[in-house]
Amino acid sequence: MRKTTEGKCSFCGETFSEKTIKGHLNNCKVKNEEYTMADTDKSEKYFCLLAQGYESPEYWIYIDIPASSTFQELDDFLRDIWLECCGHLSLFEINGETFSSSPDREFRDKNMNIKLKNIFETGMQFKYEYDFGSTTTLKLKVVSEFRGSERNKKGKKVRLLARNNQPDIKCSHCGKPATNVCCQCIYDDNGWVCDNCADKHKCGEDMLLPVVNSPRVGICAYNGGSYDE
Known about the structure:
nine-stranded antiparallel sheet
C-alpha cells in the first residue's frame, strides 16, 4: 500500500533510490562545493544521521548535526519535521541508556542536555520514541562524521540532506491518491481516502487526518510538520 524507494537530495534536487542516496550524498557536487568552502579555522565536527520509521521504513531522512549539539536539539528537529502534535514526551534509547524529555530518577533516566559528541560514534544504531500512548518509534544510525563550516548560531543547527518522496498511497474506494486517513482505522486498508470519497468513510469525516510525509501519519492529531508547509 505504501511503496516508495526514492528520495530527493536537498542540495541538487535530484531523485535517487533509497539504496543509492547515501552514495550520492558523499559525491554530490553541489553539496561538496558548499562544504569544502568551509574556513578551516572556523570548522567544526558534524555527524551525519539516518532516521527511519521503525515499523514504516519507507519514511526516511538523512541529516547532519553539529557534534556539539545536544539530544534536546535533535529531539526538537525530529518533532519539527515528523512528529509534534500535542507536546508528548519522548526519549532516546542507546546501548541500554535512556535520554528522556522527562527523566525518571527511579529508572535512572538521563536528561537530553547531554552533547552528542559525548555519546555518538560512527556506526552506532539507536532508537527514539515519541508519545508513550500512541507511540511513533524511529530507528537512527550515525552514518559518518566530518568537519564543515561553523553554522550560523542564530540559524537551525540541524540540516536536512535528503528525504524520501511521499509514499504512493491509494484511496481504498476509487484508487486515486489518498489525501486523508482515518485515525480510528489507520492500519486498516479501508482507512485511506481521497477528498472526493471522504464522505464514504464509515467513521465519518471528523475522524480524518491529512496524508503527510511522516511515520506519524494518521496518529493522534498529527497533521504535518513545519517542513511540510
